[in-house]
Each structure stands twice: as C-alpha cells, then as structure tokens.
Write a structure and sequence with these properties.
53% of the residues lie in helices and 1% in strands. With 306 residues, the chain is mostly helical.
Length: 306
C-alpha cells in the first residue's frame, strides 16, 4: 500500500549545499568547534576567549575498549588452560595478572596522550585561540573509548570555555554531561540551574558534586552562595558547617559562615579570579557593558588521571 502524505504536511525546504573546501572532515564533524577548573588547571589570566560556536548535540555512547581487551586476555588465559587440561586455577591467576597489568598500562598510555593534548589546549587558550583549543579537546574523544570517566572530563572542559564566554545555552548540554569529579563544571551547572529557577536541580547537582569533592572548599562556598541567593540561608549555613568538618581551619569557609550567621553578604572575592569566572559578581573596577578580560578558563589535567 503506497504511503500518502498528510494534506497539511509541508515539505521542509532543502538547505543549499555548502561549497567544497578541499578539506577532509575531522573525526567528529558534528561536534562543536571550541577548560576546567580547580586544582590542576593551567591559569592564563591574559588570554581572551571570544569565538562563535555552533550549538552542541548529545554525545554518542562509547565502549570501554580497555576493559574489553583486559577481559579478552582473562578469558583467553582460562580458555588455554581448559583446552590443555591444566588446572583452571592457574589460568585464572595468570588471567587476573594480565587483566590488571593491561588496564594499568593502557591507562598510563592514554593518560600521557591526554595530558599532552590538555597542555596544548591550555597553550591555545593562553594565546587567545579557543576555537583551536576546542579542536584539540575534540581530538581526545576517540581516546575516551579507552578510559573511564574521560568523556565527562572533556565535555566539562568544553562547557567551561563556553560558560566563560557567557554562551550559557551552548554550555548547558556539555556541563550536564560533565563528570562529578570536574567540580567547576558541576558548580557552573548548578549556577545555571539557579539562574533558571530550577532550584531542585541545582541542589541535586551541588549535593553530588560536594559528595565527590569533599576537599574543595570553594565548591561548598559557591553552593552556599546560591542557596543564600534563593533565600535558603539556613541551608547555606548547614552546607558550610559540613564543609568545615572536612576542612577544619579553612579561613574563607569560616568567614563566609560567620557572614551568613550575621546576615551579611558572603565574601566570595577572597577566592580571587576563580570566583569571577562564575559570572555571579563583577570584578572590582569592571566597566558596565564591557566584557572583562579575566578570569579565563583553565585546562584541568589532574582529574583526568583519576
């Protein structure tokens, strides 16, 4: 039976074909053309990040090839013992050694490659070429198939670049896919949810990020700041109190807790340039309507080795 078009259906107009450029498409032509934060970032205060970027689309799933290789070696070891009628315990023991050794060696190899590319991306940001930094980060996508959690770190890096440019709509999907270990990307996501009145989503994101990064005092302060901003001062004080249980003696946490107890504004400028990249306050001396040159996003490498 032939298919009939509904009477009210209109044929979508065909977009004109783009002219040939003579260049081969990259590994991920669908990915956007464009780092992250906390301890482990490279900080480049003089870099300017300002480039147009296409809207991102959901990332494809990727298989953990390192796990498949390791399991294959384990299975092969057991299979050989069974085929030769040897004691199967020997095969399991050898297979486990191969499994963990292979995982370790692959993780080291992939980690070195990723760290080199992160360093290169940091240099690109420092020179004011964020589009080049994104191309480098996109080049890490194939490596994400070999290492757990790497994809979330890459997406977090791109999301932070977009957020730093105030491209919040484009940054949101990347930040949502970022790893909980990437605490600045998750904090930026929480801030975006707060600005969009998605308070429960904000709390969910911050709670998970704080649980995964208990030694990051600034993360707790940003969470408390957002809670105080939406009128939940008691909850904000509870967040800082729990953080001080892990970070006893942190002067900035103590100062912010005391400020909330006295119903005064929190002193977030004590965190320096890192605070201003959340775009919640303007640096002192910033001219209204003028985009500040700093702070700039930094390429985070430390968490990639976790």
């Amino acid at each position: 039976m032939p298919f009939k078009r509904a009477p009210n259906c209109a044929t979508a107009p065909q977009s004109p074909r783009a002219p040939r450029t003579g260049k081969r498409p990259g590994l991920y032509p669908h990915a956007p053309q464009v780092s992250t934060a906390a301890a482990g970032f490279l900080h480049h205060p003089g870099a300017v990040v300002d480039c147009p970027l296409p809207r991102p689309i959901p990332a494809p799933r990727s298989a953990m090839l390192s796990l498949l290789v390791s399991l294959s070696l384990l299975a092969a070891s057991v299979g050989i013992c069974l085929a030769l009628h040897w004691y199967v315990g020997y095969g399991i023991a050898v297979g486990l050694v191969l499994f963990f050794t292979t995982n370790y060696l692959l993780a080291r190899t992939i980690g070195r490659k990723v760290e080199a590319r992160m360093r290169e991306a940091g240099d690109a940001v420092a020179k004011g070429h964020p589009e080049r930094a994104v191309e480098i980060l996109e080049g890490c996508y194939p490596l994400a198939r070999w290492q757990f959690l790497l994809r979330g770190q890459i997406d977090g890096q791109i999301g932070v670049i977009l957020y730093a440019q105030r491209k919040f709509d484009e940054a949101l999907p990347y930040l949502e896919r970022s790893s909980n270990r990437h605490w600045i990307a998750r904090a930026m996501l929480g801030v975006l949810y707060m600005k969009r009145k998605r308070i429960e989503d904000m709390k969910r994101v911050f709670d998970k990020a704080v649980a995964a990064n208990r030694k990051e005092g600034m993360l707790a302060s940003v969470y408390a700041y957002c809670l105080a901003k939406v009128g939940e001062r008691e909850a904000a004080m509870a967040v800082l109190t729990r953080a001080l249980e892990k970070l006893e003696g942190d002067g900035r946490l103590e100062a912010n807790l005391k400020a909330l107890q006295n119903r005064r504004p929190m002193k977030m400028k004590n965190y320096g340039d890192l605070w201003y990249q959340f775009h919640l306050e303007r640096p002192a001396g910033a001219v209204l309507g003028q985009r500040p040159r700093g702070p700039q996003p930094r390429i985070r490498r430390k968490a990639l080795r976790r």
